[in-house]
Here is the input.
Amino acid sequence: MKSLKLSILLLISIFVLTLSKAPSRDRNKKPYKVVCYYGSWATYRPGDGKFPIDFIDPYICTHLVYGFAGLAFDNTIRSLDSYLDLEEHYGRGAFKQFNQLKKQNTELTTILAIGGWNEGSIKYSAMAKDAGKRKIFIDSCVKFLLEHDFDGLDMDWEYPANRGGVPEDEDNFVLLLKEMREAFDEHGLLITAAVSAGKGTIDTAYDIPKISQYLDIINLMAYDYHGAWESVTGLNAPLYARPDEQGDELFLNVNFSVNYWINQGASPKQIVLGMGLYGRAFTLQNSDNNGLGAPSTGPATAGPYTREPGTLGYNEICDFLKGGDWKVVVDPHQKSPYAFKGNQWVGYDDIESITIKVKYALEKNLGGGMVWSIETDDFLGKCHGQKFPLLTKIHELLNGEIKRPPTTPPPPTTTRDPNLPTPKPMECKQAGHFPHPEDCTKFYACVPIDNGFKVVIYSCPAGTAFDKSARSCTWKDGVNDC
Here is the structure.
């Protein structure tokens, strides 16, 4: 009789747990995941580097990740740029625009990333070690995600037990994910994590079998193996080791990282292979010594769009290469190119090396591909006559041709009253935001599409008008001719 009662109680518990688990908000129906991080600060970049949300092609990724939210002093999740992210106080409402992309592609899943390199590790360590603080954080995340219509959270804690963290972070990260899983399942929310590819960090930060129980996707950041923090040149993301490498150098490649995560207990299908749509760049000590392992004096000159010494977006790199005078070399062992001109040197990925990496991911039976980040691809199609050439190649190799709905034909023309003035045209010669020709409280965006542009009209918030010089809405009394 006692065993019967226990069995009944167990069945009731399972039934209650089943009822409390909502259907997953993951809308993806494709065989493989294409996870695309979006660095929201790209909307502030100058010229052809500017990348607002309406430049995102909602059909080119299966999962879009918005970077970044942060951790507030009270252990709640918070916006790091409330003017950009939110609509309150005449904000630009990027969260809303980002999640409205799901109206165009109903199979798109949107995720909010919290953390990132600049957020550091210390405050996440302090939150994760305290049960009460963990609950505050998790409850705030659920509320925040649902309020803004995100489908999940990407934990980008860089990194547990590192950068000021404590050894106990490894266990506390497991507790955090376990409790998060219980709360998130009630709403069908996803939990993903951006994780390190470095052996030393992996060994101290992650209990891989345990965190794998609670994560829907493991985004393996298989890049930044080398950079200008080192004294010699090296590729951003070599696929394999070179024959002359030894010791710890043998850990600094994609193949080692993937195998290490799998051998330590991660399911291959959980792992999504991260690929960098950017390069790591150096200034050579001697321009005649320009191979791999050549001495450098520090980071290369900043690019015109990313404006960060030592880092160049693929859109910047392909612009440089198109201009000539750069020598490109593909390392036969590491399967990625590097290029140099004078004392400037950059290691990066191109269409050919990305192809090799995706085929490698398929051979290893991984769950798909991830990119950091969508706004440094050649999104304007300046170099290859095709927008998003790297990301397009990843999608096509994993999931076949990108299928978009047919373009809606324009409405039938109607006879115009000849007594009315002829409206001024809204011309698009380049991507960006431009003043509406008839109404100073409106503006239009020229969005690249196929071989031309799509015009999207926006209205400024009440009391504001479009400022031509700032290319954004501002108070009306500060705008001339309005």
Q: What stands out?
A: The longest strand covers residues 63-71. The CA atoms of residues 71 and 77 lie 5 Å apart.
